Amino acid sequence: MTCRYKGDEFMLKISELCKSYKSCKALNKFSFSFESGIYALLGPNGSGKSTLMNVLTNNLISDSGDISLDGERISEMKDRYFEQIGYMPQYCPLYLNFKAIEMLYYIAELKGVKRDEAKKQAFELLSAVELTECKDQYIKTFSGGMKQRLSLICAMLGKPKILLLDEPSAGLDPKQRIVIRNVLSSAALDSTLIIATHIVSDIEYTAKEAILLKKGEIVDHGHPDALAGKMSGRVWSIECDTEKAERMKSEFPIVNIIKSGNGVKIKLLSDIRPDAEAEEAEPTLEDYYLSVFGGAV
């Protein structure tokens, strides 16, 4: 496929996208332009993240709105659009009686990747997610984390220009999440990655922009550092006994509580200093997320 480029950028543009399920609006006039890099969709369950993924992959048809790729409507591109995307759904179906390498070759065949190139990419991707030693193992013997990593590299086969990833780090241990984060950062150098996730820390240092969704609408977006900066002077840390901690919990949104000596250390949100002993803490994207959506402990 030959694509047109504006400079070096590859543009996916969404305009006024709407999708409803009966009386529930899953997407309400969603508009955004995606270039190369990682974009994180953040929001609670029911915010519209998976609906957007399903519309972009044509698994759902939008009620209204427009999607274009590098200036051309995807409805007119048809197969030329689908050749450019890789998709990892939240619950990715895998053929459990296949070996890992067979699954990759099968997906490569469906994507039209030539055999020699498919072999090269398969081994590179297996190595990148630390599954090379498991390539001849049947998928039914894989752990959840292994299946998750295999699902991701199935989506990456063929080097798509757009990767749509729904909860790619779900079920992974901390070490595996770092591996995946590094793989995605490398892929984002010349591709567009749209990642729906609940794990804010996975994208805090890698995302070009975070997009906060609530009931199908964008409530804010920007670089993670810029969004975290909006919490300056509103995040506090205090060490206290458990009795005082319980009182603080009833008065302020608590981000976390950890044991400290004979008491606890609390991180909380407040527009003013909540206590004479409270010290201002460095804000994070997670703090901003909690201020927007609630859900603090």
Task: Please tell me about this protein's structure.
With 297 residues, the protein is α/β, with parallel strands linked by helices. The protein contains ten helices and 14 strands. A six-stranded mixed beta sheet has the order 6-7-8-3-9-10, with helices on both faces. Helix 4 crosses helix 5. It is globular. The termini are far apart. Mean pLDDT is 91; it is low at 1-8.
Q: How would you describe the shape?
A: globular
Helix content: 25-40%
SS element count, helices: 10
Using only C-alpha atoms, the radius of gyration works out to 22 Å
Number of distinct beta strands: 14
In N-to-C order, the SSE pattern is: EEEHEEHHEHHHEHEEEHEHEEEH
Strand content: 25-35%
Mean pLDDT: 91
Low-confidence stretches: 1-8
How can the largest sheet be summarized?
A: 6 strands, mixed
Q: Which structural class do the helices and strands define?
A: alpha/beta
Strand order of the largest sheet: 6-7-8-3-9-10
Distance between the termini: 50 Å
Multimeric state of these chains?
single chain
